Structure prediction request, 495 residues.
Amino acid sequence: MRVLSITLAVLFLSACAVGPDYEKPEIDTPDVYRFTDEEASDVINTRWWTQFEDPVLDELIDEALRANLDVRTAAARVEQFAARLNITRSEYFPQVGYGVGADRQGISRDRANALGIDRITTSYEATINVGWELDVWGRIRRATEASRAQLLAAEEARRTVILSLVSSVATGYISLRRLDRQLEIALQTRDLRAESLRLFELQFKGGVIGQLQLSQIQSEYELAVSAVPTIERDIAIQENLISILLGRNPGAIPRGKTIDKLTFAQVPEGVPSDLLLRRPDIRQAEQDLIANNALIGVARAAYFPRISLTGFAGFVSGDLDAWFDSDSAAWAAGGALAGNIFTGGALKGNVKQAEALQQQSLFAYQQSIITSLKEVEDALVSTQKAREKLLSDGRRVDALKEYARIARLRYDNGFTSYIEVLDSERSLFAAQLNFVDTQRDIYVGLVNTYKAMGGGWVVLAEQTANEIDFPGDEEAYVPDPAAAATYNAPGAGQQ
Prediction:
């Protein structure tokens, strides 16, 4: 009864844990974003890339989610931390082992005669061993808390990879379609100037124009020609980049809609405080903070002794035939207390180190929030101003088309020199390229807005990424769907 009382008292104490309990830091976030969009809508939890209405882009993103090697690496890392949590959590339970052995010993004949024992002895034993550390000071509890937070942080890190991957594929594809359109413009300009050059060469041979005019058109033609291989190079590089994101060897990328035919996606709505719940990098930073906060308790627990219960039961016999007889039964039970007396400051150093890591994690968490707010503001203002610029760029292109038409008409009727025609066409070429750049900026701004705001769409993308398999592992760790649902639940990310 006394032993039972002591054990119950110890177990009661084990419910306590040294070290600070985690408290979510108070974060000051603005009520609204500086740059809002009147057309924003609640689309943060949808597969936003489908709003571009390009099936090829949808297929590329699905392929990337299934095959990207960074996603696979992140998934394997989640499995690593899931296994680490199981290892840490196992210390809660008694550790049971077994032992079976036999040995034969011989001593000198003189000593055997003096002691009156057999000179050669044989011993057989079979035992079950039990050891159990009582978590009196909460060391195991804090270590498990830290491991659980590290697992959740690994899950959020994987979601961060997925978020970045989807955004990178979408941005890369949009940039590719921009280059495709610019190549079309460059080829059209080259062909137009090639025809002009052919006509001017005929006029030069006929003595109608001089070398000066021919050299001018020759120069503009070569300028148009030189633009083509530059854009073709950029296209190949962009295709190689997308291929890597898809987990492929560098190669060609299929096309869908032209950049002119892509549908403008809607801007997601939200308030700054939502970022704390929706951004996986912020959630990861908080889990890192939780883990390092718990490790302070692990370090402080080293000041106190470890209390363990041990025991064994089995059979020990010198006769193989009587090995398992009741007379051969043996057992032992006991307890142990072990601690540190002098460590030269190591324990204090470990605590200070843990506290410093916790402070680093706190500052990193705060910085991640500030950075996320900046990224959202940057994305919103970039999208807004790109839309405004596109209207102006479009009007400029229309004006320059008219200018080029009138300049050529004036030249054909002998009212101006060909220099005016060349100037108008040169300006039109640059304006057309710039217009396509602005189109790209709008689409990329929309992509960056979704990336910056995070949201439930990350979980939807993760469902596709979860289809990957790890060879030889039939029980691969899969994130809990219920846990993923907390992305949009009040208080998500808290523990």
Q: What stands out?
A: The domain at 15-93+135-304+346-488 is CATH 1.20.1600.10 (Outer membrane efflux proteins (OEP)).
